[in-house]
Write a structure and sequence with these properties.
By secondary structure, this protein is of the alpha+beta class. The protein is built from six helices and 25 strands. Strand 14 and strand 15 form a beta hairpin. Helix 1 packs across helix 2 and helix 4 packs antiparallel against helix 5.
Length: about 425
Amino acid sequence: MTMKVRRLCGALILTLASVLLGLPGAAQAEPERPGDPEGPSPAVLRAMERDLHLDAAAARRRLTDEAAAAKAEAALAPALGGAYAGSWFDAERGKLVVGITDAAHAQQVREHGAIPKVTPHGFGLAELNAIKGRLDTLAKATPSAAAGVVSWRVDPVADRVVVTTLAGRTQGALAKAAAAAGRAVRFETTIGPATATVDDWTFVDGGEGILSGSQICSLGFNARLTYSDLPGVSDPVIISAGHCSTGSTTVSGFGNSSTVSLSLGRWWMRDLNYDWGIIGSLDSRWVQGPWISQHTPDDTPLLVHGTQQRPIGSSVCKSGRTTNITCGVIRARGESVVQSDTGRTVFNLTRDTTCTERGDSGGPHYTADVQAQGIGSTSALTTSGHCLQTIGQENRSWYVEIGYIQAYTGARISTG
């Protein structure tokens, strides 16, 4: 799809740019569309092979292993209780590694096909989450406390809370509070801050561009939203990034030959602290479905099959208006990130290594077998506005997990 609009928001100093897509809409009758019911899309597999340096067989094998790891994680996390210290996917062994505080639980882990690892420092996930929670509370109450800090997260591999600070910057109260937690916290340093970054359309596909107010973003996932005050009533919506869901009265999709405005309904809402947004449409010209754009000339979409959450270390892909389909690896979960351009801390983000640039904000993050993972929020970019891989560094982008958005709002994404 050739876009007429070519707008980028501001320059960055090695920035974290927000990435989002969101276009709402419903149609009276949904036409049939081709999709990918027979397995992973060749286009997504090619992106996975390119970005993760895999051959075709290794990419498919990894997808199978990651799906098994996700099932094991879902079973073991609640079963281990206080002994659970987090888990992650080990790509070399093709297995889930599970941190435990007591070796007595090792056999229980093995029975689920996972690898047990006694934590090196003895911290359970609940204890580390509590420390991170106190830092989150401080940042919410006093935003200036996060001065000199880029992000903070629980790292199950290191068995610590990891705080990333800006080199050469004076650190505020949050960094000092983290240091007071002693050996449960590890500091690391970075040089770059984070920043919030065809024909007339009939179908609404995740990853296609939208114009929300003055911001160019990407559309996320199609969904339906129900209301607690109106039993049995639901409306078609788009789940997108909060910073792309403006308070304006229209969201405009832009294509080759026209711009079409979509009216926002009573179900519009957003949360900038967690950077999710829900946009509703009253425009019958727009057709919704479980679709993600592959950015191909024939406009054949991916079909979203579910929302199975994948462990840290698993592969993940994203679709966006600027960089189309790129893939990477999930690096961290529940990270709090300071957006240097907005001055806002965004909480509970998941970090991955997909290449995500300005205009991709709000776009869908998903696995190659199309299990929805989240909505693009923030990314680290070079001074020229490109992904960190262009200067030989690992990409850093963050998304809001779809499970969190669905649980909080009651919206349910379309699957097929």
